[in-house]
Amino acid sequence: MRLGLSILISTIALFAGNTTHAEKPNVVIMLADDLGWGAVGYHAKWAETPNIDRLAREGVELDRFYVAPMCSPTRAGLMTGRSPIRFGLARAVIPPQRNFGLAVEERTIAEALGKAGYQHRGVFGKWHLGHHHVQWHPLSRGFTHFEGHYNGAIDYFTLEREGERDWHVDYEPSPKQGYATDLIADATTSFIKKAATGAAPYFCYVPFNAPHSPFQAKPEDIARYAKGKKAMNEHKLKAMIWSMDQAVGRILQAIDDTGEADNTQVWFLSDNGGVKRFEANNKPLHGAKLSTFEGGVRVVACVRWPAKWKGGRKVENTMGYIDVLPTVLASAGIDPKAGEVKVRPLDGTDVSSVIAGTQKDFPERDWFSYHGQAGADNETIAVKTEKWKLVVIGPDIRQSQLSAKHKVHLYRMPDDLLERENLADQHPQVVEELFTKLRTYRGLQPKDAVPVYSAGKKGFVPWADWRIKR
Known about the structure:
By secondary structure, this protein is an alpha/beta fold. Helix content is 26%, strand content 18%. It is built from eleven helices and 17 strands. Strands 1, 2, 3, 4, 7, 8, 9, 10, 11, 12 and 13 form an eleven-stranded mixed β-sheet that branches. A four-stranded antiparallel β-sheet has the order 14-15-16-17, with helices on one face. It has a two-stranded antiparallel sheet with strand order 5-6. A hairpin with a 2-residue loop joins β7 (168-169) and β8. The protein is globular and about 60 Å long. The termini are far apart. Residues 1-20 have low confidence and may be disordered.
């Protein structure tokens, strides 16, 4: 009797911890590039984004969603669920000349989902996590399909960077022609249609390069905003956002056409704030891309999963890019803390209960952001707690205490999310306490971290077609 009961309990436990393919959601993560807070219709009327607006309306709007202040670090944290400073990818992005990539010891979301039965795992768009060696290629990091570019930015029409074409299908350079945003949508929709025919769930990561510079848009889209006048960069930027939104619409339609929209978890977010030159792009937030003020790190974000999460709601709990991996894994019935993750603990956490609305008193965590892309004399670093946010700009804080060379900003949270009143002089004790946290965080960076952006640029010549040698 005891033996039979033991077997029964073991069997129940096995199936309880192993969600079937039918229950595991398909997962689609769309990542915009340099999309400002005010650049979506549901935040402002500066640009037109009917499809992104639809996704936010049908899903859950993530109102206080935080990322890194620039491209590669956000992508690294999104892929790993860990703060990118731990593996040296927080100081700067990966420029064309840089022989550096996402540390091979880090487990990616694609690798984890692959072990959980996600047979098809595609990435379509901007990779920007290493391109000098095959060990950093998407197909070496858990993905089964790749189409897009390696570098942080390319010409939208010629698909070139540094004079060489940077467009690839899997490992091989591709001769495809077209506008980059359209090519990304073509590859994504084709993948979804094919992957949905199988019994296994699929994972699709869509890192758009839009609306990152260069400011290039299709003539018909520019005409929508220039209205017969000379096309300015602001017109082009709006046209690029419109084109990306149309691509989002195509992807959502492809999901609908498979009949699996109800059990497909669709995320949309930006990798950082919009560029500084277009103020309306980030309004009403303070700051922009490459800053640790809210306009640089608090971004547009929403998620839709009709089968589990009731739509039409806004969540105001603080969460961010490092939470996506553990939340997706938990949704797929995978313990985010199991296995090899114990060796490299996650910094993110499963926020599915918050998104679902079943847990409203989710504890606040300390949120750190940092970049030192311009060099050790001009770094920016910040920590946001439940009650305060401290921003320090100046020399590397590992080398000295606060001095006249540092600009110090202290804001009360969440009352002053627009960062209008600097309270640093009124609360020196708070500044001191938070500065201690910042120094501890800054000290996590390993010695072999990615160098500053300009290092090694002089004399660099790209190889033919940016082909990765295998």
